[in-house]
Amino acid sequence: MRLLLFALIIASSLFCQVPFVGCKMDGQSDPWEAPKAPRNMQLLAGNRTDGLAYYQAAVGIGVLAPLGWGCHGIYGSSGHILFVAPKPMDKWLAAFPRAKPTDPMIAVLFATSETSGRFQVAEIAGRIFRGYRRYVEGVREGFEGFPDWSAEGPFPADHLSRKSKTAVEYQTPANAEGLGTYVGLGKSEIPIRGAAVIAGKRPHLDLFLLAVKLPANLKTLGAAVIRQFESDAARCPCY
Fold first, then answer.
1. Tens digits of per-residue pLDDT, 48-107?
2. Taking the complete model, does pTM exceed 0.85, yes or no?
3. How far apart, in whole angstroms, are the C-alpha atoms of residue 61 and residue 45?
4. Is the peptide bond before 191 cis (omega within 30 degrees of 0)?
5. Domain locations in the chain?
């Protein structure tokens, strides 16, 4: 018992050493300032976080990314998205001239079926989560003109690894379109790794989608980023 308590104390002290970076956010109304401290940050036990910091905006889950990078978020009726890149991203409209979609970047998308995000939820659910076909058909029947995502299936180039009925890890190869480019990262010579998680109960579903494009000298950090994301998405109410 004493040994277990000692291990928990050591683990907690290690968690506190991970730097936090607050991210500004722009959207449909006023810009939101960067938070001063993380919300409900619970770093995954045993996850190697050397060289990483925890980035988070005013809403949404955070994400581990290389220490010293810049970040910026966007919110709207469908949900929100957080971008983290090696270069400063003070204003989103001014960010891409300095941090282009083809550059290394990490992005976390949250979409909710409570609003117009239902279309993003339905498309990704239809493509890679077989158990949600009835939900996808319901969205399509309510709004004419949308393709049959279930029939289209996964993006052809993607390599998928199913972790559960509601979680999938993927890799979009270099110079290919797929889940990795769905969130705004451009295809390039760098492969994109990530994960997709569906949360909630029908008819109210949420989608969490992570895209990780790291340069060769940092690609070993990707596994820790993905594991932390999966843990955060599984326990997050992110409205």
1. 889 999 999 998 889 999 999 999 998 888 888 999 999 877 655 444 545 567 889 999
2. yes
3. 18
4. no
5. 19-234
